[in-house]
Amino acid sequence: METAGPFAALAAQQKRAKTTEDDDASAAAECDVSIAPAVANAAAKPSSPLPSASPASTAPGAAPRWGVAVNDLDWSYPGIDGQPVAGQPPLIKNFNLKLAPGSCCLLLGANGAGKTTLLKILGGKHMVPKEKVLIHGREAFYDTGLTTSGQLSYIGGDWQRDVAFAGYGVTLAGDFPASKMLNSIPGVDEARRKKIIEVLDIDPTWRMHQVSDGQRRRVQLAYGLMIPYSVLLLDEITVDLDVLGRADLMAFLRQECMERSVTIVYATHIFDGLEQFASHVAFVAGGELRFCEPIEKIDGLRDLEPGALLSTVEGWLRKEAEIKREALAKKGIVPKKVFEYVRNSGWGSGRTASTVSFGPELGMKHEGIKGSSNAVMRG
Ligand SMILES: Nc1ncnc2c1ncn2[C@@H]1O[C@H](COP(=O)(O)OP(=O)(O)OP(=O)(O)O)[C@@H](O)[C@H]1O
């Protein structure tokens, strides 16, 4: 997809970077949270300075520099047989991203752009070829010690558990207090435990089957934040939080970056207050990284004005939608405006009658799938 308008300068910069070897210079253009932009950003925000920790050394034989490194990754969801779907282009395309320790990177893009998929790949939840996705130089998928040690923490939208016979996707709710969960995590420093419970304003006596969605979310977050991770992946985790809870959490996360050189990648559509949180912004469209830049280098964001992120990202999304429409028009495809039934992959493990393949192409009528919960309508 061609880039134009607001993307032109950034796209050109990224293209230049791709033509060079994967040395520090090119990595910097991809998304290098090195000390220079961090300090520059701190200067712009005296009340809440950005990370002052140095990035890991690049000296020969020294510890790997990047907290997160994605190297020329192409990736797709497998088909029902676990194999790549023949003829289907990759969902994640030619993806390169490098973040040094101490970075707070917002991962932005339209619905379906690939943010969750990417975060799950970074979290080691999807298999990728070796060397393609590294967390502090270790293989995200193959090195299970990364997640079992808590060094790599992924907190996603759902907090669910599998319950025998009730199926998958059952919301976590049992009659036990929040304290039972939060005190059961071994090896957590008491001061850290207290701090996190305080930041998230959790009442340890909350019964988990009686809490509200937002209260459950707070406990989920506390649980995921408790072990001192070095890389934290967050997928739209603040949806249920009230304004205060969200502000306190973001301030805590920022402090984690500053004091412990944590690398954070945060995918979200809720932008308020994030100008002061982010050191970098990565924008994804159609599975491709359009750009990843220090926030103060991005037009419209460099002054870190409250509200700037919302209007700037809206502009990017509108531009993307336009580019997409133009590309479709070139192929002679006019997006349908009528409602129609769509069929899904026909596969939903553990669910009874919730996923059924149907549609005119199978010669099946809607009446044939009565009882299915999955008759999806799209406009
Ligand atoms: N399990 C799956 N199997 C096949 N395709 C999937 C699966 N999960 C997601 N996809 C597809 O991958 C694409 C990217 O989805 P993803 O969830 O990563 O997007 P996103 O950027 O996180 O979107 P949103 O902002 O809506 O959360 C979408 O087109 C989606 O339909």
From TrEMBL:
It holds the Pfam family ABC_tran. InterPro entries: AAA+_ATPase, ABC_transporter-like_ATP-bd, P-loop_NTPase. The keyword Nucleotide-binding applies. Residues 1-27 are annotated as: Disordered. Keywords: ATP-binding, Nucleotide-binding. PROSITE patterns: ABC_TRANSPORTER_2. Residues 68-311 form the ABC transporter domain. It comes from the Eukaryota. GO terms for molecular function: ATP binding; ATP hydrolysis activity. This is Predicted protein.
